[in-house]
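Q: For a teaching session next week I want to show students how multiple molecules come together into a single three-dimensional assembly. I've collected the sequence lines for a complex. Could you give me the predicted structure tokens for the whole thing so I can convert them for display?
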Amino acid sequence: MLFRKKVNFRRGIFRPPIQAYEPIKTRVNTYLSLQKEALNTSFVRLWVTPIGSMLTILVLAMALALPVSLHGLVENAQKPLQALETTSQISLFLKPELNNQSGRRLVEILKRNPKVSTAELITKEQGLVELSELSGFADALSVLANNPLPVVALIKPAKTDVSSVSQLLQELRKLPEADLAQFDTEWLNKLRLMLEIAEQCVTAFSLLLGIGVIFIVGNTIRLELQTRHEEIAVQKLLGATNQFIRRPFLYAGLWYALLGSILALSLANTIILAVRDPANQLASLYGSTYQLSFIDLRASLLMTLTAVLFGISGAWIVVSFYLRKLDPAKGTKH
Amino acid sequence: MIEFKNVSKRYNESGDALSDVSFQVQRGELAFLTGHSGAGKSTLLRLIPIFERPSKGEIILDSQPIQGLPIRDIPFLRRKLGLIFQDFRLLNDRTVFDNVALPLLLSGHNRIDVARRVRGALDKVGLLKKEKRMPLGLSGGEQQRIGIARAIVHKPPIILADEPTGNLDPELAGEIMRIFNEFNSLGVTILIASHDLNLVNRFSRRTLQLEHGKLIKVVTEHAV
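A: Of course. Below is the structure for the complete assembly, covering every listed component.
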């Protein structure tokens, strides 16, 4: 048939004309009732098989806890590193023939340099006192006829990133008064690079385990579909739309992912809590009051949202595949 | 209301289940479909809610041809039908109430409305006191009546029943037929497939007789 009249059984046909066009309010109410029904069904189904549901949630939590904990670790390592960077300074050793007076003049000039945050002078005498206090060389030093130490300027760079610091270093080394300018950045750089690698790993893990969430939820839903085959068949016989059948499973995917995320966050924070005390002790050995922080709110929300999205997607994919096989056009018997 | 025009259904394995069947059931009519088992009664009934598509021919419901209906609109067609199955097709892990409520829940009625209508339907089939029971704990006749309550709860304009009295003793069968009669008098179009000729003959209604997938005889109600 070339021109077939468009048939629409959603409205018209058997319905009395007065109901043919439902007002918006009725449609909204219908929609809300359907959502409520699906929500209800999803809870009941979770509850009917408590052990199965719990196992799924546990597996999800394990999968999610790994990247989250790793993220927490990297975050926690980065903060003291940043603190180290802001306290790091350049030691500018002046030529040995220069006296405190010329040192003082140089420091005044340096203070006016915009690349310099603070500059401080350590005179020959202060240097000697510090050295004898720190090194226990007091006796040996007292033998010396005159002070062999140079005048030193301690300079804090205004910007602590690698390129700004090395620029400043270049500049300082060109000064006629300068003998040696030192900034111990090597190990800091290495540590930072390592953390960068760790961060990339966190991203990669998150992606992998996010896809894992799709599979875990998908597989659970697939098993559930098998046990509910008859129920779904009857629903279809009585005129359930595919959305109606899909909806409770999407909610199930949401609950699995949401509860899994909450459990994963609790796990990660428990780990942090467990290592908190020893970490604090370690920090105090270095004279720091640094404290480990829990997983921050932003990361927690991001992870939960992503997991929920992937959980719902997993359910959607599996149910849609299943429903496609039930189409009457494909000749499958109900 | 229901019209078949030269409808055939062929399964690959076993020849024609229906061949060249044409008939009409008028609006507000109650008609029987008889024939031995395997004559094609169930196949014919399965074509109307599009559980399957015919291989040839045209089916028209309320002057609308249904074979062009897109898959996504099939559920809305089925909601206009009250279906009663030979094997009941009840959900055995749900209460009687929940089983009967299903057609209403899937079209989005609110819970209060659902409760009112479900109790009304259960009252009609005499199962009001058993709404909290599970179907498997009830007799065959009672399960069949749950099925009937589920088929009428959403007040469909057409009821299709496949051997609705097949599992019942004559007394219960008569009771169920009385229920159908009652609905019919309210204007519902009803098509009942049954091989029980005694029962069919007790009601003077138009009867379509199938044999080997062919419509061999139509007995009009006056002739009975």
